[in-house]
Design a protein that fits this description.
This protein is α/β, with parallel strands linked by helices. The protein has a single domain, classed as 3-Layer(aba) Sandwich (Rossmann fold), CATH 3.40.50. The chain has 7 helices and 11 strands. It has a 5-stranded parallel beta sheet with strand order 4-3-5-8-9, with helices on both faces. It has a 4-stranded mixed beta sheet with strand order 1-2-10-11, with no helix packed on it. Helix 2 crosses helix 6, helix 3 runs parallel beside helix 4 and helix 4 crosses helix 5. The protein starts with 8 loop residues before the first helix and ends with a helix.
């Protein structure tokens, strides 16, 4: 169970410092075992772990994925790993070319409510959003231009509103940051969006999973390919932003411990409930 969120007033206190970039490192326990490339042309080597450690839970577990096309790749990885489990429901709430600048939090939650068949809370909700958000935001009949302090404040507010709304409907929120990309013009912008999101979530006492280091796959900066379990495999899509199915599975490995714990918690709740009836 996540800690209680703080009031939205905490977001307003962030406005003065949101422009300061913050990079949160991925915990060492979640990092892929890797041999960094030490020279140009040296192929990085990673050991595939993916979601292989997950097994079907005894009790019904509800997982959801919300966000853009990057999130859709994570949904596919989770679906491949757990879709065959009759005890796991995987909700797909992704939309290509969408984000928080085009679609406000309340509309995302309207989609959530329409797609959720059960009134019970989701056990885990994975969020990855922001890749399409490098543009202005229209709010109250005015357009707030990207690259301004006003945009930072409004975007952080939308992140906070979505995070709080999801927290009311899910036991765990796993918000995944944007990856390292090979498209140079996007790289500093994505770092800035990550900073806004991570600071906002920190103010709400919610976790942020930084995948920048993980998405390098052991290379010093960006890698299209890597040696995975002894074979050279392509891990990034040709646009150098998205991933191949294997790449998404490696990224999803960062979420495996939380998903496994959510399954264990659900099983314990079920066992405890049965015990109280005896």
């Amino acid at each position: 169970m996540l800690p209680k969120t703080r009031p939205m007033t905490a977001l307003r206190r962030l406005a003065a410092r949101l422009a300061l970039p913050v990079a949160l490192a991925l915990p060492a326990a979640l990092a892929l075992p890797a041999t960094p490339a030490t020279a140009q042309g040296v192929m990085p080597i990673v050991t595939s772990v993916g979601l292989d450690s997950l097994t079907c839970p005894r009790s019904t577990v509800r997982l959801g994925v919300l966000g853009d096309s990057l999130a859709d790749g994570l949904w596919a990885a989770v679906e491949r790993a757990l879709g065959q489990c009759g005890s796991v429901e995987v909700l797909r709430l992704t939309q290509v070319s969408d984000g928080l600048t085009h679609t406000p939090p309340e509309e995302w939650m309207t989609r959530f409510d329409a797609a959720t068949q059960s009134t019970d809370a989701q056990d885990v909700f994975i969020v990855q959003i922001g890749a399409n958000d490098l543009r202005g935001i229209r709010a109250d009949r005015e357009r707030v231009n990207y690259g301004t302090p006003e945009w930072d404040t409004l975007y952080a507010r939308r992140v906070g509103e979505l995070a709080e709304a999801l927290s009311a409907r899910a036991d765990r929120i796993l918000w995944v940051g944007l990856p390292v990309v090979g498209e140079g013009r996007f790289e500093p912008e994505y770092q800035h969006v990550n900073a806004l999101i991570s600071q906002t979530l920190a103010a709400l006492n919610l976790p942020f999973t930084d995948i920048r280091e993980l998405s390098r796959f052991g290379a010093p900066d960006f890698a299209m390919n890597a040696v995975v379990n002894g074979a050279t495999r392509q891990l990034r899509a040709p646009d150098k932003i998205h991933f191949t199915p294997l790449g998404y599975e490696l990224i999803a490995s960062a979420l495996a411990p939380e998903i496994k714990e959510a399954m264990a918690v659900r099983d314990r709740k079920t066992l405890f409930g049965n015990a109280t009836l005896q």
